[in-house]
Specification:
Layout (H helix, E strand, L loop, with lengths): L1 H8 L5 H17 L3 H5 L2 H9 L1 H9 L13 E4 L9 H5 L5 E2 L7 E2 L9 H5 L5 E4 L1
Antiparallel strand pairs: 1-4, 2-3
Helix pairs in contact: 1-2, 2-4
The protein binds iron/sulfur cluster (2 copies).
Length: about 130
């Protein structure tokens, strides 16, 4: 079950992953002989029931609405904080950041490989991860 959750958190989950996770959790709950085994799958079963939309966002949109799954974060530049210093654009290994000097810069999500360098080098906290 942990491996299946890891797949979902890393953006490798599919509809089948959700089905297998659900079936495995139910099987463990039903087949376990001790109380620990019967209750261990509860967090999975209850979150899949209560927060189904979050699971589906991870699997179908490769998005983490809570902004907790690092592999799914898409960095964005807050134009109100960006000073247009160009440092992030110079350091981006794939040229995903465009912008003129002293103008807010923009990240192309199609090109970005989510390395996090732009966030590390920006001295103005203008790069934010968006789930
Ligand atoms: S490093 Fe920060 S302030 Fe400079 S261009 Fe990039 S986002 Fe803007
Ligand atoms: S996360 Fe990495 S690849 Fe994406 S825009 Fe920032 S520096 Fe470029």
């Amino acid at each position: 079950m942990l491996a299946l959750l890891d797949d979902i958190m890393e953006g490798n989950g599919t509809e089948q992953t959700l089905e297998i996770l659900d079936r495995t959790a139910r099987a463990v709950q039903k087949a376990s002989l001790c109380g620990l085994g019967k209750t261990a799958p509860n967090p999975i079963l209850s979150t899949m029931r209560q927060f189904r939309a979050e699971y589906e966002a991870h699997v179908f949109q490769k998005r983490c609405p809570a902004g907790e799954c690092k592999a799914l974060l898409v960095p964005e530049i807050d134009p109100s904080k960006c000073r247009g210093c160009t440092l992030c654009a110079k350091k981006c290994p794939v040229g995903a950041i465009k912008g003129e000097v002293k103008q807010p810069h923009v990240i192309d999500p199609e090109v970005c490989i989510k390395c996090g360098v732009c966030s590390q080098v920006c001295k103005f906290g203008a790069v934010v991860g968006v789930g």
